[in-house]
Amino acid sequence: MATSLISRQLALSLQKNLWLSAPGCRHVSKAAAKTQVEFDYDGPSMKTTVPGPRSQELAKQLGDIQNVGAVHFFCNYEESRGNYLVDADGNRMLDLYTQISSIPIGYNHPALHKLMSNPNNLTTFVNRPALGILPPDNFPDKITESLLSVAPIGMTRVQTMACGSCSNENAFKAMFIWYRNKERGVSGPSDEELTSCMINQAPGCPDLSILSFMGGFHGRTLGCLATTHSKIIHKLDVPSFDWPIAPFPKLQYPLEEFTRENAQEEARCLEEVEDLIVKWRQKGKPVAGIVIEPIQAEGGDNHASVDFFSKLRNIARKHGCAFHVDEVQTGGGCTGKFWAHEHWGMDDPADIVSFSKKLLTGGYFHKDALQADKAYRIFNTWMGDPSKNLFLAEVLNVIRRENLLEEVTRSGKALLNGLYELQAQYPGLLSRARGQGTFCAIDICDDKTRDRLLLQARDKGVFLGGCGDRSIRFRPALIFKEYHVHLFLNIFNDLLAQHK
Ligand SMILES: Cc1ncc(COP(=O)(O)O)c(C=O)c1O
């Protein structure tokens, strides 16, 4: 791989010159100072339209085994590096989607390769333990070095899990267990509770609820799905719980230009939250917890103000509900702080914070009070994977060593400013540019144009994702520099010029 990379560098420097002389590039972004990521490629390189013939062939082959309706193209992970994803046809794309926002420091980062090739780590990769019963002897140290070093304020306990959905699913269970224990006080469960729970009946299976928000996404497993309200396709045909759903503020952007209107909208939503909590208590289905994303991601990159989150936190406290912040998509540094909720500047932002994606392992941090009181109440076979903690510890080293949170803030500013400029240039096409760090989005005039632009951008060597009804979301890795921002803006500007 190394030799092919060196020979490619020559060809790429030629090709880069071509990119910079492409039409339209001067409109938005001046040539940026090139602070190149050491192991990155120089730019996109496209050989076919995407999916190319090899990807199509593979889709046919896999189609005989699975539903491949969601497959974009097949990838060559050996050749992918840094900010670039290479597909099975040899097309190299600047990746602003990063496996649904889950690649923290780019493809094939040398630090992670080094960790893999260290013989001392071999057994961790070879032997996947049932962590809940037989953890490895270095587990307390490793989890302290990795996850606990980024614990949200006020939390010293963490439960690892495998993915985002199972993290949320178990976080919900922890909130229900906490709530019932709080109600019981010192007395344990009654005989009636012990027998009724086995046949899914109250009081053993109590009618408690979780309040969630319209447009929210917390996963696709059964419990999580009851709190997910972003797309019909996730929900159709699946039985669900009668749990309260509050409106999430529909704000106008840029936020600082619409503070009065947005404050009114947020006040309306908060009032509704309190009404729902009261209503569900009266219905006999009290709200044990409130779950919310700091920025609604799948639902369309919807933001809310610090004031909104602070008041919501107070409502949760006032009504005795646990407050669960789902940082599965926002966590890990992409907003310019390690956790998006850090932007709120609160002393006591949450009772539970769930994570996955960029943290490589799933799980949730929680306050001491939300520790399940007995073994096996929060449990499954793997409960995470210690090899992912090894990777995470190294990812955190890289983030600190390379000041990646500052870099994200810098690249994020350049990206958002570039989007503002494009929005001013193409008002009929683009609107509502918004973002925090590189966690940015922009709306396109309609869903068909959005979908077409995503495909056209891909053919020009930029891989992007959509979210909500008609938004494009930007989810680059933390090593996405200003140089990459300008590369993207130039290509995107050319595309938009064709749509005029
Ligand atoms: C905020 C949020 N919560 C939960 C999930 C579910 O995570 P997973 O797909 O790993 O189950 C996602 C996935 O996109 C998410 O964005």
Descriptive notes:
This protein is α/β, with parallel strands linked by helices and 500 residues long. It folds into 2 domains: 53-108 and 404-497, Aspartate Aminotransferase, domain 1; 128-401, Aspartate Aminotransferase, domain 2 (3-Layer(aba) Sandwich), CATH 3.40.640. Helix content is 40%, strand content 12%. It has 17 helices and 14 strands. The strands form 3 sheets. The protein has a 7-stranded mixed sheet, sandwiched between helices. A 4-stranded antiparallel sheet has the order 10-11-14-13. Strands 1-2-12 form a 3-stranded mixed sheet. Strand 6 (287-292), helix 13 and strand 7 (322-326) form a beta-alpha-beta unit. The chain is globular, with a radius of gyration of 24 Å. Pyridoxal-5'-phosphate is lined by residues 100, 163-165, 168, 217-219, 293, 297-298, 326, 328-329, 356. Residues 100, 163-165, 168, 217-219, 293, 297-298, 326, 328-329, 356 line the site of pyridoxal-5'-phosphate.
Features:
40% helix, 14 strands, Aspartate Aminotransferase, domain 1, 7-stranded mixed sheet, disordered N terminus, globular, (S)-3-amino-2-methylpropionate transaminase activity, 4-stranded antiparallel sheet, 17 helices, aminotransferase, 2 domains, Aminotrans_3_PPA_site, binds pyridoxal-5'-phosphate, 4-aminobutyrate:2-oxoglutarate transaminase activity, Aspartate Aminotransferase, domain 2, alpha/beta, 500 residues
